[in-house]
Amino acid sequence: MTSTPEKQLTNRRDRLKTIDVHTLKQLLDRQAVNLVDVREPAENAREKIPGSVLMPLSNFNPADVPFAPEKPTVLYCRTGNRSAQAAQKLFAAGVNEVEHLEGGLTAWIEAGYPTQVNKKAPISLMRQVQIVAGSLVLIGTLLGAFVSLWFLLLSGFVGAGLMFAGITDTCALGMLLAKMPWNQRTYR
Q1: Which residues form the signal peptide (predicted)?
Q2: What is the CATH number of the domain that holds 107?
């Protein structure tokens, strides 16, 4: 019996397990987990869970993930979306067991658990996207009001892009900003 690609994808999604922040904290305290951060370098540089290893989703290679047979591997990102995507890449590469942190770093912080914070690192990608998109809408609106109505197309284009990002859960502006030099530096 052969399985279709859709059925294989469904099977991989069914295998993805989540771990709550309290269980992860206990495992970290016992040094009994491989914790992998799949956010981008600037996000990791700004704030991370102590003891995690950075492997950004943008250039995620399953062969580079540090697996130890005696420790579970747990992926995390800001909310849990990118870590689920990274887990699917691991399943596609033949990995049988991997977990991701339910709610991501946001849930970890809300639970009051410690993070390593570097205030010299760039602001988060989400804030960078908000600043750039908001600036483009403001500029388009002002130029549309005082110079030419054609500049309103700029505001409309940015609005359509944000709507597309929300519907598809992909943000082209965020991916572009993640590749900027200030977001690629390693901060200590």
Answers
A1: none
A2: 3.40.250.10
* Residue 56 CB neighbours (<10 A): 19
35, 45, 57, 77: which is the annotated catalytic residue? 77
Residue 89 belongs to what domain range?
A: 5-117
Global pTM reads 0.69
Does residue 70 sit in the same domain as residue 25? yes
- The Cα 74–Cα 122 span in angstroms is 26
Residue pair 28/74 in contact by the 8 Å Cβ criterion:
no
17 shares its domain with 79:
yes
The packing angle between helices 125-146 and 152-168, to 10°, is 150
Nearest to 104 by CA among 137, 74, 80: 80
171 is known as an active-site residue: no
Q: Which residues of the chain have pLDDT under 70?
A: 1-14, 186-188
Q: Dihedral sign, CA of 37, 38, 39, 42?
A: positive
pLDDT at site 125:
81
